[in-house]
Design a protein that fits this description.
The chain has 157 residues and is α+β, with helices and mostly antiparallel strands. It contains 4 helices and 8 strands. The strands form 3 sheets. It has a 4-stranded antiparallel sheet with strand order 1-2-7-8. A two-stranded antiparallel ribbon has the order 3-6.
């Protein structure tokens, strides 16, 4: 009987450990700070074209019109783990009896789904400096942050 109590305590401890790990991972599931993308819309104005290319890299697309250059950078959507199902066969014992079991498992995503992508367009004016940083209407600023984050100084605080 004492042996069964020890096993129950072990199972309870393992479940608590797994629950704690899941809570920690869920806390890490936050995305990039949208405030970085918001600040970039003013902070990058006046940045020389050479500095933009040095920090953001080569644009995915570029165009020229009315004496201005338009550099568009694209952040592709991130794909997260999606739920699925599987069938497995397992063997084990609990409480001193052996057995074989057949089970059906379902995956549950933590912070799942896909994050939308973003396109950021930098307008370079006739003086060779950034005049505007824009994102599509309704774009997730968190999805836009990776595009501009290397060009932004960390906030003072």
């Amino acid at each position: 009987m004492a042996r069964d109590t020890g096993r129950v305590k072990t199972v309870v401890a393992a479940m608590m450990l797994l629950g704690g790990a899941a809570a920690i991972l869920a806390g890490c599931a936050t995305g990039p700070d949208p405030e970085v993308a918001r600040r970039a819309q003013t902070a990058m104005v006046g940045m020389p074209k050479a500095d933009l290319l040095a920090c953001a890299g080569v644009p995915d697309r570029q165009a020229t019109a009315a004496g201005r250059e338009y550099y568009t950078y694209v952040a592709r959507p991130a794909v997260a783990y999606s739920p699925g199902s599987s069938i497995g066969i397992g063997a084990g014992s609990f409480g001193g009896s052996g057995g074989v079991g057949l089970g059906l498992g379902f995956g549950v995503p933590v912070g799942g789904g896909t994050s939308p992508g973003c396109e950021a367009t930098m307008v370079i004016g006739p003086r060779g400096t950034v005049e505007q940083v824009s994102y599509p209407a309704g774009a997730s600023l968190s999805a836009c942050t990776p595009i501009v984050s290397t060009c932004m100084a960390p906030p003072r605080g």
